[in-house]
Protein FAM160B2 isoform X3 (Tursiops truncatus), 754 residues
Amino acid sequence: MLGLVEMHWLPDENTPAKKTDIPWRLKQMLDILVYEEKQQAAAGEAGPCLEYLLQHKILETLCTLGKAEYPPGMRQQVLQFFSKVLAQVQHPLLHYLSVHRPVQKLLRLGGTVPGSLTEKEEVQFTTVLCSKIQQDPALLTYILEGRKTVGRKEASREATALPREAAGVKNEEQPHSKAPDRGARGARALSTQLPAETEEPDGGPGESTLITSLIGLCKSKRARVALKAQENLLLLVSVASQAAATYLVQSSPCCPAIVEHLCQLYQSLPSFLDPADIATSEGISWRLPSAPSDEASFPGKETLAAFLGWFDYCDHLITEAHTVVSEALAKSVAEKLFVEILQPQLLHVAPPGSARPACRSEQSILTSTALLTAMLRQLRSPALLREAVAFLLGTDQQPAAPEDSPHTLGGHLVRHCDHLSDEISIATLRLFEELLQKPHEQIIHSLILCHLEGRPYVARGSPEPESYEDTLDLEEDPYFTDGFLDSGFQPSMKPPPAPVTNPDGKTAVTEIVNSFLCLVPEEAKTSAFLEETGYDTYVHDAYGLFQECSSRVAPWGWPPALPPLDPHEPERPFFEGHFLRMLFDRISRILEQPYSLNLQVTSVLSRLALFPHPLIHEYLLDPYINLAPGCRSLFSVLVRVIGDLMQRIQRVPQFPGKLLLVRRQLMGQVPGEQQRWLPPGDPSQTLGYHAGTLPTPPSRDPRHAVSFRLDHQTLLQGVVVLEEFCKELAAIAFVKFPPHGPHLRLSEPPEGHV
């Protein structure tokens, strides 16, 4: 061993290390240490060669040579040697000061220079350290930094009990001293070997440590190096004890460095990203970064993939980390990314002046909304979801009043759903649709349920109406003129008595389904002329989505039935909330809005109707509720839309033929046309989540437009969407209240309705 470590074997300073006998000598040293350990009779004892290595600080000497790159390439050789020694020697070396010091020095050399030639060796070195920490989690705080260790008090007690020599540590220099066991005894051994004057051996916690070294390697352009570094960092935060996790949060740059890189990636995104391109970037994982392809390539794709991949990694870290680290990292992401960067962009208001600032303002809102939607789609960790919900909806769950101005970001975003820009409205509606699919009860409670509690939308103290139409006062509604009533939508003035409802609820379910299916008059229907366009095409998808929604909300303990009404309770003003009011206002303009916007509005309403809460059942899917004066429900809004439609039909010549042609255009069935016309919109958006009944909008390239455009195009497309939406609601009602299964106790419908 002595011959192998003599300094005369150092070659000329200009000769690369790998062309000298240095690699051979280091290999011989490793072989000797491994062979000696195998020959030791007593397990856990240090042999003479290992003691020589420790006493004469050979590892520190090698570290100094590696830091100086003397000879050239020496750092690579030293990193390889350290990795092999720590991996192959079973003796707990990291507990010794003469090993701990050079390990800290090597960590300070790694991950600091992007694209370093020794990245591969650096990540191998950190992998071995993380493996040792996994075996002995008590090592984590000591590897991270020698200062502020958990065993500081214990070390001072041990220092008084064990005599120290003036120049070193007696424990380390005694021959044949029994090595400490792993676990708590190993950590205690290191504490006793760190004198008071060396508790901070080479720097404070602000300098590079194992964490910053790993984060630096995570930024490597070499995919394998970055992936291995991310796996190592994930391992550290997952095995950390309570004390180590506290140290990671309070005394290491762990959370700030991770979030700083996330913010840097976000700010490097180009401002011209198309929301449609952002929406197509699904399924990006930190383990499988997307490779750019010619077909799906767009400007900024690699930058977007890098940001979404790192966000997914942060979300995974928060899921797997110790609770202390998880909470701190989630709060840091919310504060630095959501509040400081994203919120000003979402609320961007253009200064008065020319139109250019307004365009930039709209583009900022549009891009940031689409990016927030993409982040919500990838978000899985409960801690980060709580922070995101608090960021969007606040913590106050009290119902709002109609005159209240928005006091949360969510309130402003609801206004964006009714923006002058259709693109901003679509992007924000898509954001809320994604939010509604997250497993957090406050979302649906803040947006919907807090306004429906107590059922103030139901009339009190009045007898049940003879028919549902009586509750709407159709004759007094300005939409329902004599022309409309003469068109065949004449309500029954004296209906027969209500039928007897079977115990299984079959009659009620049938009437509910028929109410939505027959809402659109026959002259405005076109699906009967095409195959496979009945409402049953929606049932399969609706059933799967309802099951998924039910399993998501099952832990929330929602009541199975409606609370009884007190007939003596005075009526109180009802406000459906800003979110439902916006949706009802939007659906009431379905005949005037662009096709893509109508698709998104109906998709959000369908998501809401799927929730298995009795109040949502009643308010959105019961056509027979006795509404209080001035209140409206989804069905009542749709009835008034039909009234408006019947007036418009009279002003459109050849309405049935044009309507059928528009449907065939939307489905790509017009003979001789390879593409069909659609208004600008997100190419990934379909009619709600329909089972392919209406097609995905094509590219917005003008070359994809057909050679003609019908008059009343928006109206005709709105009628098609309206018919499909009613079929979708019927399918949802059918799967929520199956004829032979549990059903909601709705009010009994009058016989002969529809």
User: Anything to note?
Assistant: The chain has a mean pLDDT of 78. The radius of gyration is 35 Å. The longest helix spans residues 323-346.
